[in-house]
Amino acid sequence: MTKIRSFVFSPFSENTYVLYDETKEAVVIDPGCLSQAEKLELKEFIVENNLKVKALLLTHAHLDHVFGAAFVKRTFKVDMYLNELDLPILADVENRCKTWGIPGYEPVESDKPLKEGDIFTFGNTELAVVHVPGHAPGHVAFICHKSQFIIGGDCLFHRSIGRTDFPFCSQEQLLHSIKTKFFTLPDEYTVYAGHMQPTTIGDEKKHNPFLK
Prior knowledge:
About 25% of the residues lie in helices and about 30% in strands. It is built from 6 helices and 14 strands. By secondary structure, it is of the alpha/beta class. It comes from Lacihabitans soyangensis. GO terms for molecular function: hydrolase activity; metal ion binding. Its cofactor is Zn(2+). It holds the Pfam family Lactamase_B.
């Protein structure tokens, strides 16, 4: 059984996830930890639960999802995975942090690509990778069919959707991604998003005003 531990980090209230199972193998997804206290909180949870981090996975490379990426790579000596279409966004994070007056970001580079159709395995857990552009060109989501959940990044939120007013965004593309990659899943699948509380596919089909 795959367990999910979420953390809310940074002034952007970003959701960082640690996934792990009975084997104690784990992955960190979208580390938004910016302050030293937040980084320590993430590390202490992993150490106290004797977890072995196997990889750092990114849904996309917007700054609030990568604040702690260099820290995670260095601390746990793991590779970082990112869809190659988001590499230009990752390369621009340092500039955006300077423009917005956000201190403390440590530049980081991706090690391995993620693409549609990949299956990422750790312990007894399998995550299917789906490409869901719209909020970012290389945005991916991770689906665990065995445990019926999605780590969805900034695509589908509780009664909302990801922003599309950034460079390289497209609301039309985002809505298409949600309808073809998320809404084709059973209603009971839980969506763990990059911000806000979890939701379900069924609830969003019925109540999300952007997808009527």
